[in-house]
Amino acid sequence: MSIPLLERWRDRLPVTADTPVVSLGEGDTPLIPADHISGLVGNPVFLKVEGANPTGSFKDRGMTLAVSKALEHGARAVACASTGNTSASAAAYAARAGIGCIVVLPAGRVALGKLAQAIRHGAKIVTVDGSFDAALRAVQDLAKDHGVTLVNSINPFRIAGQQTVAWEVIEQLGEAPAVHALPVGNAGNITATWMGYQAVGAFPQMWGFQAAGAAPIVEGRPIEHPETVATAIRIGNPASWQGAITARVESGGTIEAVTDERILEAYDLLASHEGVFVEPASAAAVAGIVANKIRLPRGPVVVTLTGHGLKDPETAVGTGSLPAAVPATGPAVAEALGW
User: Fold this and answer.
1) CA 61, CA 151: separation in Å to the nearest integer?
2) Which of 51, 76, 195, 305 is deepest in the core (most CB within 10 A)?
């Protein structure tokens, strides 16, 4: 049986004797060598597969702590704005805790795999006209006026829980990497990962990658109508913007933009050469290190793969097709294979 994340790292987290630990067995995700990508970039590359968390994304690391603290403080419900992964995680942990969950979504802009999770976990779902940023403003007002606990990454317990990924990487790798690369949407993950490394005296370069159509940090201004196939990072005004800038500056790292074309190439590359199926946003960081390989310092590179590919089945199906049916005989199958 796995040790709950909050128990494993209790001495480093804001967990007290009064904190009820709400866990689904999160954390302890695989760190696997990426031989093909290593060959492409000329550095040893390792994939931190966060899609192996209980609800299929890295969000569970922060949500276990955020919901545990909400329960400790007597919350009757938690609430979040989401493009998908946060809603799935919040709904699952709220169900585990026996409290309500309210999810506010930008209408028509959430992958179905993520929305399905929130629905089945019993969340109360409201869709709003506008972007994720508009949804977040609405849920902030809701939390202030109706006494529910906001569990987006502006909740400090979310960030505190997410920093555990850095501690796991160091354990698994035996050292801190030279570079830790991540996709950047609302920017809580790069903020938290850098905080985790700093907490144990480790200082890899933090490389963050936004989608070109949703790259407010790269462009230095909010994007009113962000667009990208990578729905999890389709955010025009990141809540943890300053945290991402701090991580970049203090680590000597970078935050760059990659096109949807490059993201989808990396998405296929991960699946076909490394055997790892991810949501498109996860592939942004792989696209980024491949595009910037000549700038990589010597040493291991860790890439956070933020979510499982089944989170976004529309993209998976839409970029492939099934062949026409043939008769159910060995010769017919062999002919279809060109044998």
Assistant:
1) 12
2) 305
